[in-house]
Amino acid sequence: MKHIILLLTGILCFSSCKKNIKDSAIQAPISKTIQKPDFTQYVNPFIGTSKMGHTYPGATAPFGMVQLSPQTNFEVMFNKDGSYNKETYEYCAGYQYRDTTIIGFSHTNLSGTGHSDLGDFLVMPTTGDLILDPIKTKENTKGFYSTFSHKEESASPGYYKVKLKDYNIIAELTATERVGFHQYTFPKTKDAHILLDLVYNVYHHDDKNVWTFLRVENDSLVTGYRQTKGWARTKKVFFAMQFSKPFKSYGHQKYDSVKYDGFYRRFKQEENFPEMAGKDIRAYFNFETQANEKINIKFALSSVSTAGALKNLEAELPAWDFEKTKLETQQKWNDELSKIEIKTITEADKTTFYTALYHTMLSPILYEDVDGSYLGLDQNIHTSKDFTNYSVFSLWDTYRALHPLFNITQPSRNNDMIKSMLAHQEQSVHHMLPIWSHYANENWCMIGYHATSVIADAIAKEVGDFDKKKALAASVSTANVSYFDGLGDYIKYHYVPEDKSHSSVSKTLELAYNDWCIAQIAKSNSDKKTTDIFLNRSEYYNNVYDPKIGYMRPKLANGEFRKDFDPLDTHGQGFIEGNAWNYGLYVPHQLEKMVKMMGGNERFSQHLDSLFTMKLEDKYIEKHEDITRDGIIGNYVHGNEPGHHIPYLYNWTGKPHKTQERVRMIMNTMYGPTVDGLCGNDDAGQMSAWYIFSSLGFYPVTPGSPNYAIGSPLVKEAVLHLENGKKLTIIAKNQSKDNIYVHQILVNGKAINDITISHKDIINGGEIIFEMNNIPKINP
Amino acid sequence: MKHIILLLTGILCFSSCKKNIKDSAIQAPISKTIQKPDFTQYVNPFIGTSKMGHTYPGATAPFGMVQLSPQTNFEVMFNKDGSYNKETYEYCAGYQYRDTTIIGFSHTNLSGTGHSDLGDFLVMPTTGDLILDPIKTKENTKGFYSTFSHKEESASPGYYKVKLKDYNIIAELTATERVGFHQYTFPKTKDAHILLDLVYNVYHHDDKNVWTFLRVENDSLVTGYRQTKGWARTKKVFFAMQFSKPFKSYGHQKYDSVKYDGFYRRFKQEENFPEMAGKDIRAYFNFETQANEKINIKFALSSVSTAGALKNLEAELPAWDFEKTKLETQQKWNDELSKIEIKTITEADKTTFYTALYHTMLSPILYEDVDGSYLGLDQNIHTSKDFTNYSVFSLWDTYRALHPLFNITQPSRNNDMIKSMLAHQEQSVHHMLPIWSHYANENWCMIGYHATSVIADAIAKEVGDFDKKKALAASVSTANVSYFDGLGDYIKYHYVPEDKSHSSVSKTLELAYNDWCIAQIAKSNSDKKTTDIFLNRSEYYNNVYDPKIGYMRPKLANGEFRKDFDPLDTHGQGFIEGNAWNYGLYVPHQLEKMVKMMGGNERFSQHLDSLFTMKLEDKYIEKHEDITRDGIIGNYVHGNEPGHHIPYLYNWTGKPHKTQERVRMIMNTMYGPTVDGLCGNDDAGQMSAWYIFSSLGFYPVTPGSPNYAIGSPLVKEAVLHLENGKKLTIIAKNQSKDNIYVHQILVNGKAINDITISHKDIINGGEIIFEMNNIPKINP
C-alpha cells in the first residue's frame, strides 16, 4: 500500500496541484442548512421514473461519478420460462415507479439512456435468516428483496430515503462526487446483514460479468473490483467499501462453476476468508444491532484501482457525518440550480423546470480519481493534466441541446468535456473522437460524429481554452475513417448508399451536418483548404433528396433511389429511429436551402402542419421502443431526438407563431411535474435540455452556429447567473397560459427583427424582453 | 499515450534511477561471439523435456520474464470423446520430446513445475490458406500446426530453432529479459500468415480465459492483454507485439458467443478492424514474402499495462538485430554459467552439470517493468523501490536447495527475492509470506510457510540487506494465520490433528521446521521471547511420532493415533506426496534428536538401508503422478522433494560412507545428459540445485543453518567465482567413477573432522580438497 501512496504522491506533485486544491475545497465547512433560496425543493427526482423516462431517483452529486440508486422489481428481468422479458427496457436506470419491491442500492446508473448498463455493486441491508438469493431461494422461499411503499420513500437532489418494510430498516443514501454514503437504521437484532451483490447488473439476463475480486482488508474495510462485458465492452470499476462499525463475521457465495484447487483444498473459503474472486459472487457482512442503530457505509469508486478508490474515499469523505455530507451535496445542487432563477405561471412549472435542469447535470459523469488519474480508452492509466476527465457522452442525443446549454450554464465543464473528447481521440486506436464514450469504452451507439458539433458549438460561442488546432486535426481524422459505419462510401459516393449500409439517409444527413461543423472548426483555424473540403461535403444531403416525391429517400450505389419506400415507416427505410417525414427534415446547417429545396415556405410549413396533426397508424409505432404514443404529436416524435429542432422550423417558413404554438404545446403535453412527466427517454439530459431552452424562449437549432431560434418562453421571468459573472434577465411580459405568441423581442431595449438571437445576446448579460400576446403575430 | 509517458517518467525520477542505469546497460555493445570459455555449449535445454522433467527447450534470459518456447502436440489435450486426457500432466511446460507437431510458440512457460499454467500469446507462422483452427478445421482438414523433426531442431541457452516442415518456415527464437524476439524465414509466397492465438493455454481444457483485448496500433504494432483464471486465479499479462515488416491485412475470429451490438451493427469487425476483444480470440496478420525473407517479431510483456510493455520493448530491444540479441543473451547465460568452472570425469557430466545449473536460473522470474512497476498481490500497481521484484516462488520445492544455492551463486538476486517476498506479505490480505507466489497471485500450492526458511537461510549465511525486523514481523504474522491450512489447530493442539486437516503429519513436520526457522530469524533480531515461542513450536514434530511402531503417524484431535495406517502408502496416511517411510524422516532442524528418537544410529541407518533397497509394490506407485518408477530407488523417491535430504542422513548415523554411496548413485542414475535426464519434475530448479550441490560435494540439509552436510563430489575440480570477488576451488583428489568415498577433507589445508562444512568455508573462498578413495572410510 505504501508504494502506491508514494507513487500517487509522485503523480500529484507534477501534474495535479490544481486538482488537489479543488478537491480539498470539498471539505470546507458549511452551515447546517442549505443557503437560501433553496431551489432543490423544486426538484422531484422521481420525474421520469415512470414509463420510458429512464431516470433514477437515487443520490448523486452534480456530474458525479457515483449514482447511488435503488433497483426495483428485479424479478421482471425474466419470464417464468427463464427467457428474457422485454419489459426490461423500462429498467435502463434500474427503477420503475410502479414497482413495489427493492432489491438493493447500486452505485452506477445511467440517466435517461435508451440502452442499459451499469448497476455496479448492489448493496442491501437485511435482517433475520441470511438469504443470498435475490428473488427466490432454492427452497422456493422469498429472496432478499424487500417491499416498500412510496409513502415511505422520498428523494431530493443528493438524497434518497426509503423504508425497507420486510426488514424494518430505514435506508438513506447520499453521495459525494466519487463516494456513495449509505445510512441504514436497523431494528434491534442479532441477525443484521449487509449484502454486497456483485452478480447484479442492470439487464442482468445478459450475463455481463467477466470477473469480480474482493478483499476484506480488515474488520470494516472491503476493496475489490468488477469487470463486465455489457454495453461498455471492457468495463472495470474498482471500489473501497468502509463500514462505520466492524462486522462480526462475513462470507460469500460463488455462483460460477470454477473451483480453485489451492483454495478449495486448503480453506473453508466461504466464511471469514478475506479473499474472494470469481465470475459471480455475493458477499455478506453480519452485525448485531440495537434498536434504531445506524450503520453507515462509505462506498468509493475508481476506474483505476482499489488504491485509487481508497484515495477518493479518504479525500472526499474522511468523516462519518451523514447529515453534513447530505447537506454539502444538496448545497452543491443548489449552487448549480440557482444559476437560473425563474418565475413561472404555475408552481408546477417550477418543478418541471428545476427537475429538468437537475436532469441536465446527471451526465456526462466525472471519470477520474481525485489525483486526476483515470482509465483511458486504450485501457492504460492516464492522468488529466490540464482538465477534468468526463465519460458517458451520449452524443447523438446530447449535441443537440445539452452541450449547447452547457455553453451557457456550464462553460468550464463543457471545456473539460471537450478536452476529455480530445483525450479520447488520442487514445482511440481508430483515431476517432467519441461517438458514445462509456467508461473507457466506445460503445458506438447511433450514427454520425457529433463530437464535432460540440466542438464547433463551443468555438462559435467562444467557450473554453481547448486546443483548436488539435480539435480540427481530431475532427478531420475522425471524418476520414473509411471503415466507420458507411463513411468510406459516403466519401466515395457523396452519400451513403442504402445497399451498402443501413440507415443510409440518416447517416448522409448527419455526416453532412457534422462536416459543416468541421468546416466551422477549420474556419476558426483559418484553414481555408479544410474549410472548403468540408463545406463541400456538407452539401451531400442534397444527394439523398428525391425531388420527384419531395422526401429524403434511400439511394442505391448505382445512383437510383430505392423503389420500395414508405416515408412514414421508421424501419428499413433508410432512417434510424425516425421516418422520412421527421428525420428527412434534418439539414440544420442549411435550413433556408432545405426549405427551398422542399418546395418553399408554404409547402414546407404545410408539411410541418401535417406532421403535427396527422393520425399515425399504430403499425408505425409499436415496433420501436424509442418511439411510443406518449412521445408523439401526430407524426412528430418528441420522445426521441431526431426531430427536436422541427418545432422551431416554422421560423424558416415565415410562420414563427406556429413554432410558438408548437413549443408551448410540447412543453405542456410532453413534460410535466409527475413521475410520468417525461414522454420518452431523457437521453442523458437532452430531453430536459430541450425543455430548459424552450422555457427560456429560444433553442439551438444549429449547434455550431452562434444563433438560437426564437420560440415562446414558458417562464414569466428568468435570471441567468453566468459563469463570467454577468447576469441575464429574461422577462416575458404579459405571460400567461394563453399568451403564447411573441410580438416583440427587446434585447437590452433594442428590438430584434430576426427569427434568431445570438449567443452574445445571452452571454453578455443584460435583459431580454419577450412581449407576449394571445394573438399570433402574422408577418405580412 | 503521452500522459502515460509523462506519468512513467515521473515514477522513474523519484524511485528508479538505479534501475534505469541497470537496464540501459543491456544496450552495451558486445562482440559478435561469446566471450570464452563458452559454457553454454554444455547446456542442452532438451534435458528434462522427455517424461516428467517438465522443462521447456525455448529461449529465455537468466531469470527472464519471457520464456518463449514451442508448444507441441496440442491434440493430446483431449481424448476423442472430448474428455480431458490425463496425459496432459506431461505438458506442464508445453513441450514433450516425443512429439512430432508444433502448434506455435508461447511467451510464458513454467520450468519443471508439477502443475500447469501460462502458455500466454501463442504465435505461429504459416503459409497457404489461412487456417485459424489449431488441430482440425470445421471441414475436418488439418489445423494450423506443423510437423517438425528433431533433426531440424536445436536449442541453446537463449536460442531455439526449428523448421516447420508443413510451411517450409525456419523459426528462430531468442529473448531479452522482457521481450521475446522471433525470426521467421519464409519461402516465397503471397500467402504468408503470422497467427496470434489468444485461446491457447497450457492445459487448454481448463477453459482458462477470462478476457482478451487487442489493438492494432498501426500497420506493424499490436498491443493488448489477456486475463486468465488458471492456477493463478486472477492473472493478467499485457503485451506489445512489433513486426519488422508491415502486414498487408489482418483480422481475427472470436470463439465466444457474446456479440457486441455496437460493433456488430456498424462494422465488419473481423477484417482490418483494429480493435478486438472477447473471451477467446485468434488473430492473424497477412504478408507477402520473397524466398528466404525474414520477418521478425519483438513481443514484449508487462504485468502493468500495454504502455508498460511498450516501454519494456523500447528499453530492451530498440534495434532489429536478431543475431546481436541472441549473442547478448547467450553472453548473459555464459556470465552466469561461468560462475562455476568444473572439470569432470566424463564430458557427459559437464552437460548434466551445466544444464542443471541452467535449470536453476529459469525461475523465480523477473516480475516488473523496466521502470520498476509491477502488479502486486493486491492487484494494485506497485513500484519496487530498492529491489527488483520476482515472482514464481515454488517454495515447498525450492527452499530446500535452490535458494540455498542462490546464497552462493546469486546472493544479490536472492536478496531481491526475499524483498519480493516481504512486499508480497505487505500486499497480502492474509498478511502472509508467499506459499507459491505466482504472477501477482497466491496459488497456495503445497504446505508449510517456507519463505521463512529462505529468510532464515539468508540470515544464517549473511546474505542480503533486507530488513530483518520486517522479515521477523512478516514471519510471525504468517505463522499465526489461524485459518491457514491446519495452522489454527496446530497452534491449539501442538500438532495438526488428522481428523481436522488432511496431510496432518506432513503439515506438523513442516510447520515445526518452519517455526525453527522463525526462531533463527528472531534470534538474529535478538528477540528472545519470540525465539523461545518458536523454538517451542519447533518441537511439535515429537507429537506425531508413534514410538510404538517407530513411525511418524497421523494423530487425531482426541490425542490418539489413527488406527488405520500404512506407512508405505502415499495416500490418505497423513502425508502429502510421500509416505511415512520417506516423509516421516523430516526433522531437518533436529537431526540428532530425530535419529535418537527413532531408535538411534543403528536402527535409523537400517531404516535408511531398507528404504533404498526394498521393493515397493506397484500399488504404491501408480496412483501418484509426482512419484513414478523413474524417480525411485527402492522406496526412496528422488523424483519428488520431501526426501531430498534423506541420502545425507547417514552422516548422522556415523555412516557417512553410505551417504557418499547413495549421492553418487543418485547423481548417476537419476540425472543424465539425455532428454529423459531428469527423473521427475525439475520443480522450478530444486531437482537441479540438488545435483549442483551434490556434484560439489556438500548439501544444505538444514536451510536456516550455516552448515552443509558432506557428500561425495562428482566433479574432479570446481572453481566458484563468488559475487564477493572471492574464488573457491574444490578439488576431488583421485576422483574417479569408483573412488566415491571421501577419506579426508582439507579446507585451506586444515582437516575437517565433522560431518558438515560451514558456509564461511565456501564464501570466504580458498581451497577445499576432498581426498577420494574406492574403499569406504569406516569410522571406528
TrEMBL record, chains A, B:
Coiled coil: none annotated. It comes from the Bacteria. It holds the Pfam family Glyco_hydro_92. Its cofactor is Ca(2+). The keyword NAD does not apply. Keywords: Calcium, Hydrolase. GO terms for biological process: carbohydrate metabolic process; glycoprotein catabolic process. InterPro entries: 6-hairpin_glycosidase_sf, GH-type_carb-bd, GH92_a_mannosidase_put, GH92_N, Glyco_hydro_92, PNGase. One of its GO terms (cellular component) is cytosol. The keyword Calcium applies. One of its GO terms (molecular function) is carbohydrate binding. Signal peptide: none annotated. Residues 309-773 form the Glycosyl hydrolase family domain. Residues 42-302 form the Glycosyl hydrolase family 92 N-terminal domain. Monomer. PANTHER family: PEPTIDE N-GLYCANASE PNGASE -RELATED (PTHR12143), SECRETED PROTEIN (PTHR12143:SF39). This is Sugar hydrolase. It comes from Aquimarina muelleri. The lineage of its organism: Bacteria, Pseudomonadati, Bacteroidota, Flavobacteriia, Flavobacteriales.
